[in-house]
Automatic annotation (TrEMBL):
Coiled-coil ranges per UniProt: none
Annotated Gene Ontology cellular component terms: SCF ubiquitin ligase complex
Keyword vocabulary terms for this entry: Leucine-rich repeat, Ubl conjugation pathway
Listed name of the protein: F-box/LRR-repeat protein 4 isoform X3
SUPFAM superfamilies: F-box domain (SSF81383), RNI-like (SSF52047)
GO biological process: SCF-dependent proteasomal ubiquitin-dependent protein catabolic process
Annotated InterPro entries: F-box-like_dom_sf (IPR036047), F-box_dom (IPR001810), Leu-rich_rpt_Cys-con_subtyp (IPR006553), LRR_dom_sf (IPR032675)
Length: 574
């Protein structure tokens, strides 16, 4: 019998790698906090004076509580000097994300999470800030004025947003990261994490947040960037170095991170042994099931061990559900090109947050979908600013089986691009939050996509008459279960009547910040009587809600679990 030791050696090494990764439950931020303090060990000469600056501009973000046409509770409040700090409390002059807590993931409209999401990626929202001067960061201070603790990751970018010419290379570097932690106090604080030193100057920062452990909305007032114009010199006095840091650095230098995803599946020389040990005795399907528990980077690493495992790791069945959002900072056209042969059977694809600043081109995205789009059922493209009308046309032509399309915060898409969505007649979920979809295009979509069950139109400011939209929804979308009309500016009791009579299956309805709805018209009582399946109802900031409305809801909507009647002035809520 041929010896199995070479194969066992490979398996032992891979098993050790997995154990090491499992053991490193602490994030890089925690390791830096406990083992090395770059800030304390860096020295600045008098000629290299520290520069302290507030954000000049908010260049991108994923969501905010406020309106697109005002400053209250919007991300734009993060630009400039503090408006509120050091005061604590709920202030409209702060930046607030759309949600908090776990209830958002428990409502009927919550999508099913993707498998194979790395445990160290827990970001839910982000905001990117531009500063006046490029500096080598020595400190980042976040001024939090209410319910702190949402920020879990801070990144710096090598690209200068004010440069007249595009950079040859764009790099993102994590300065600090940490798992979501519960902060018991709700008072204001100046959050000063210990950041990592980087080898390039920056004036573009990114904060990523996770609000799942918060009891209320987190409010941010300003971000302060400390840095030097010249690269700081580390002092000769060095602190302890953690072996995990060395291992991480080794992986990055040797191309084991997502930096070199395009190299993972290239034609590398792999030995073909005479025996693969116990793997020769395992059914093909069982090996596939085992590998299904690996994250994408681990799958890439394992593919380099031998031809047998390379064959398994490159099997399209391993890529039925593909979540690329955690790798937004590295994913590019080359990555998609090398993934392309393995994604011919992909059904769920998450490209949210990816492709910005030239990482993914229209041609690269189009080539990928032409090969891999025929089986797509779900496509997540939130905050994917590389998208244009051509991309939506390609989606409508190549993804005929698509049922789930998320274009949340794709605010750079031109209005005419949304006309192509009407060709996707099988859509069941459509998210258009913070997009420039116009009334004519949306009416066409509603007319042809009668299978819709989940529809988000929150903060769509280009729609002229929401009563017309509500009437079309009531006439065409009889299967609708959830509807988000957050901050729709002109819906009236007439539109509500059309929705209530035409969509009896509604389980979730968000009418928060709809100022034209008045309880005196009986619209809320009618909702309660005609929509007995309601589980979530948001009437945020509607001061006309009265006791009669609450009594009708209590009597008729026995499945109701989430009710928001928050009065933004008084803070009263239920």
């Amino acid at each position: 019998m041929p010896p199995v030791f070479p194969m066992l050696t490979v398996l032992t090494m891979f098993y050790y790698m997995c154990l090491r990764r499992r053991a490193r439950t602490a994030t890089r931020g925690e390791m830096m906090n406990s083992h090395r303090t770059i800030e304390a060990n860096s020295q600045t000469s008098p000629l290299n004076a520290e520069v302290v600056q507030y954000a000049k501009e908010v260049v991108d973000f994923s969501s905010h509580y406020g309106s697109e046409n005002s400053m209250s509770y919007t991300m734009w409040n993060l630009a400039g000097v503090p408006n509120v700090f050091p005061s604590s409390g709920d202030f409209t002059q702060t930046a607030v994300f759309r949600t908090y807590g776990t209830w958002w993931d428990q409502c009927p409209s919550a999508p099913v999470p993707f498998k194979r999401t790395p445990p160290n990626f827990q970001s839910q929202d982000y905001v990117e800030l531009a500063f006046e001067q490029q500096v080598y960061p020595t400190a980042v201070h976040v001024l939090e004025t209410y319910h702190p603790g949402a920020v879990i990751r801070i990144l710096a970018c090598s690209a200068n947003p004010y440069s007249p010419s595009p950079p040859a290379e764009v790099r993102w570097e994590i300065l600090w990261s940490e798992k979501p932690t519960k902060v018991n106090a709700s008072q204001a604080r100046q959050f000063k994490p210990c950041i990592k030193q980087i080898n390039f100057p920056t004036n573009l920062m990114r904060l990523e947040v996770n609000s799942s452990l918060l009891d209320y909305y987190a409010e941010l007032d300003a971000v302060v960037l400390h840095g030097t114009k010249d690269k700081p010199v580390l002092s000769l006095k060095t602190s302890l170095i953690d072996m995990n840091d060395l291992e991480d650095d080794y992986e990055e230098k040797n191309g084991c991170g997502m930096d070199n995803l395009n190299k993972k599946f290239s034609s590398i020389a792999l030995r073909e042994g005479t025996s693969n040990g116990y793997f020769d005795k395992l059914p093909y399907e069982l090996i596939q099931l085992i590998l299904n528990h690996l994250t994408l980077p681990d799958l890439c690493r394992l593919a380099q061990t031998c031809k047998l495992l390379n064959q398994h790791c490159c099997d399209p069945l391993q890529y039925i559900h593909l979540n690329l959002q955690p790798y937004w900072a590295k994913l590019n056209d080359t990555s998609l090109e090398f993934l392309q042969p393995r994604c011919t059977l992909v059904q769920w694809l998450n490209l949210s947050w990816t492709g910005n600043r030239g990482f993914i081109s229209v041609s690269g995205f189009s080539r990928f979908l032409k090969v891999c789009g025929s089986e797509l059922v779900r496509l997540e493209l939130s905050c994917s600013h590389f998208l244009n009308e051509t991309c939506l046309e390609i989606i409508s032509e190549m993804c005929l089986n698509l049922q789930d399309l998320n274009l949340s915060s794709c605010d750079k898409l031109p209005p005419q691009a949304f006309n192509h969505i009407a060709k996707l007649c099988g859509l069941k979920r459509l998210v258009l939050y913070r997009t420039k979809v116009e009334q004519t295009a949306l009416l066409s979509v509603l007319n042809f996509c009668s299978e819709l069950q989940h529809l988000s139109l929150g903060s769509c400011v280009m729609i002229e008459d929401y009563d017309v939209i509500a009437s079309m929804i009531g006439a065409k979308c009889k299967k609708l279960r959830t509807l988000d009309l957050w901050r729709c500016k002109n819906i009236t009791e007439n539109g509500i009547a059309e929705l209530a009579s035409g969509c009896p299956l509604l389980e979730e309805l968000d009418l928060g910040w709809c100022p034209t709805l008045q309880s005196s018209t009986g619209c809320f009582a009618k909702l309660a009587r005609q929509l007995p399946n309601l589980q979530k109802l948001f009437l945020t900031a509607n001061r006309s809600v009265c006791d009669t409305d609450i009594e009708e809801l209590a009597c008729n909507c026995t499945r109701l679990r989430q009710l928001d009647i928050l009065d933004e002035d008084t803070g009263a809520s239920t």
